[in-house]
Design goal:
alpha/beta, four-stranded parallel sheet, 334 residues
């Protein structure tokens, strides 16, 4: 690396879940950027009074600086930016990108990571199932552990009622009337999640037929694949994609785009479907239900959203915030 600058970035949610080797081993995922030659000396610091991390590497042939930071979010996905700056000499560099996905799944990998973390830090490490069905029990258990049993049970009961009611309503819909849906991630909409992935658990809980039938978790697909699948509805998580898709010649012939049925997942404080697959998926079920089956989900979505945020976040959204969250599904107030 001669004196110059090289930059790389990624736009993944819960980066700690993708890159957890610091707490475990290489099998838990990492994004390594380092000199390929032997490192003679290294130092690390935060720049001034910021969260910009600088790491200096010195080798016999020269020196480089690795700069890491996450820009402030502006309604989009979180981003991690990594910049390599050449300081002197020539330093050959290496990069290894090995993310670990399936956040929220209780796989053997995550159990192993939890055990190793607990051994290293000497503090009990609690690992809970991140699936939708587990939310009621998880809240009840966490409430007990934190000495807030009543609060945990209250949140658990809400989740239990909502999931049961969702299942009852979906059961009334004949299979042939359940929509064919494509879940679009990323600014180009070409990252998606396969059937059975936790990333599309909300869609599948509502009986949607995920057109991405390949096995596995997250996957990158081609425009030709999406056109061949020809989904009736596109649920998207990236505002950039939603803002540009109607003018994109690669997407204009997809049925959902032609019919104006591309929907941006509400984003605050975390997206309601995925990124990460959080408790916001509960209100996301109401939102998706309105899109898929308006006759089965006729309730006042504005009132439901206000009640959810008040219960879980102790903060009722303003009318303007509700307009933003529900844009495209409910008309803004006059």
């Amino acid at each position: 690396m001669k004196p110059a600058i090289f930059s790389a970035w990624q736009s993944w949610a819960l980066l700690s879940a993708c890159f957890a080797a610091l707490l475990g081993g290489q099998e838990h995922g990492r994004w390594l950027i380092s000199p390929s030659a032997k490192i003679a000396k290294s130092s690390r610091r935060y720049r001034d009074e910021t969260l910009v991390l600088e790491t200096d590497f010195e080798t016999d042939a020269g020196a480089v600086r690795l700069i890491d930071f996450m820009p402030p979010r502006d309604g989009g996905a979180p981003q991690l930016v990594r910049i390599v700056e050449g300081l002197r000499g020539e330093v050959p560099m290496m990069m290894e990108l090995a993310p670990r996905f399936d956040y929220g799944s209780l796989t053997a990998t995550y159990r192993s990571l939890a055990d190793r973390t607990q051994q290293q830090i000497g503090v009990p490490y609690l690992l809970f199932d991140g699936s939708l069905s587990a939310i009621p029990a998880v809240y009840a258990r966490v409430g007990e552990l934190l000495g807030a049993g009543d609060r945990g049970r209250e949140l658990g009961r809400y989740a239990e009622r909502l999931l049961a009611e969702t299942d009852r309503r979906v059961a009334r819909v004949p299979t042939a009337q359940r929509p064919r849906v494509y879940y679009a991630r990323g600014p180009k909409g070409l990252e998606t999640a396969a059937r059975g992935s936790i990333n599309v658990e909300s869609l599948e809980r509502l009986g949607a037929r995920n057109v991405a039938g390949m096995p596995g978790g997250l996957a990158v697909v081609s425009p030709e694949q999406v056109l061949g699948w020809d989904p009736e509805i596109v649920i998207a998580i990236d505002p950039t994609f939603v803002a540009s898709v109607r003018a994109d010649p690669l997407w204009k012939n997809v049925r959902a785009v032609r019919d104006g049925r591309v929907y941006l997942v509400p984003q605050a404080p975390f997206p309601w479907v995925d990124f990460p697959p959080s408790v916001n998926r509960l209100i996301g079920l109401k939102w998706l239900g309105r899109i898929f089956y308006p006759e089965q989900f006729p309730e006042d979505l504005r009132q439901e959203t206000r009640a959810f945020y008040t219960l879980f976040y102790h903060q009722a959204p303003t009318e303007a915030q509700l307009d933003t969250l529900l844009a495209g599904v409910e008309r803004p107030r006059p």
